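Notebook, p. 212. Picked up where the previous page left off. The plan for this session was modest: take the two constructs that came back from the sequencing core last week, fold each one, and keep the raw output in the notebook itself so nobody has to go hunting through shared drives later. Recording the first one now, exactly as returned: residue sequence, then the structure token string.
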Amino acid sequence: MEKNTIDDLFDDLKGRFDISEPNQGHENRFLNKLNANDLASTKTKEQLRFNWKPFLAIAASIIICFGLFATLQNQPKNLDLASVSPEMSATQDFFTITIENELKKLNNARSPLTEQIISDALMQIQLLEKEYQNLKTDLTESGKNQRVIYAMISNFQNRIDILNTVLEQIETIKELKTNTNEPKHTI
């Protein structure tokens, strides 16, 4: 195999090269073509770039909606005494426990003689419970107004007073019954 050197290669190509001068304005036409290619490649790159702005706006809107939804879900529909302060929470717990205990005593004291009194008392308690639910709505709407808080405490006290009064009446009925059933011994 024969090695050609560069000189041999050019000797072989002698006379085949175009050595004439280009036409006038050739350089300007060449530069215009180069600029056109650059513009075309820039436009292609811009077209290939993905426009994220609309998708970011949609994603931000969705995140805001979920945030509002979560915030609204965490807010209680109706506030009660426990939501006002720790002291009011303790007060509500005290009243609730006391009312439950009094209701248990009332149910244990049921008898044919006391049935009417107990059912009347339970109806009054239910009315006060409905009133309390309305007060909870008022408390939420008024922004923890002191008058509404006092009305809620008064509602609890009224329930306890009704239960205590009924229990006292039941005790009176029991005493009357035992006194009338005792034989009278006279000397």
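Okay, moving on. Second construct, recorded in the same format:
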Amino acid sequence: MCFPHAGGGMGRFRKWREDPPEGVRLVLPDLPGREGKISDDPLPDVASASQYVISELAEEIESSENLAIAGISYGALVAFDMAARLEASGKSVRAIFVASQRAPATPLPDVNWRSLDDRQLLAELIAMGGLSPDLGDDEEFIELFLPIIRAELHASESYLKPAAADRLQCPIFLYHGSEDAAIPVTSTYAWCAETAHLSTRTLEAAHFLLGPGGEDMWYEALRKDLAPLTSCGAADRIFTGKEEVSLS
């Protein structure tokens, strides 16, 4: 399963359909506060998001013999938390692919996203490269989407792995931008404590891992890491956002 950044839509993941890895079927869960459920309140924390997807897609998850989960920024913590919960329940996870996020046990200095007024929050988002400056004056965008973005940024900021959580059995593939101003590289080091099988890639990009021409550098790197898993039929699904797409 793949999950986007805080308040992010599914456009990025829809583009993955245009050139999907061989043998991969994309299943896209719809979270409250997102496209198909924009009128619903966003979930209050990372744990609620992962529990929601596990409940909503229980049959899909149970029937999948080879399940991979991917997430960027806020979505990386959802991916991790979901994998931990599934493994604790006895469900095998083939791998998780986490991008642009601190290690779950490494807190960052608090920004306190909930305390920022709309203009302060918009300025932070624009500085991170997660928002076009043109949207800063879009009243409809501010009314509809800013509360969702604020809530999920707070959920990301406040998440810490439960102290009793076991180390993941599945491998973790980690991606970090060399120009990421939001996530210091030092905050990613402790991902090595979450699995015995960690692979890391540093990409010449900022937080959202996009190239200068808008190319999806994260997906290009993820495809390379996914290839050995799919070549022997090891991974048949990625969950990435909203709707299910069969590649068979």
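Notes on construct two before I forget. Residues 240-248 have pLDDT under 50 and may be disordered.
Flagging for discussion at group meeting.
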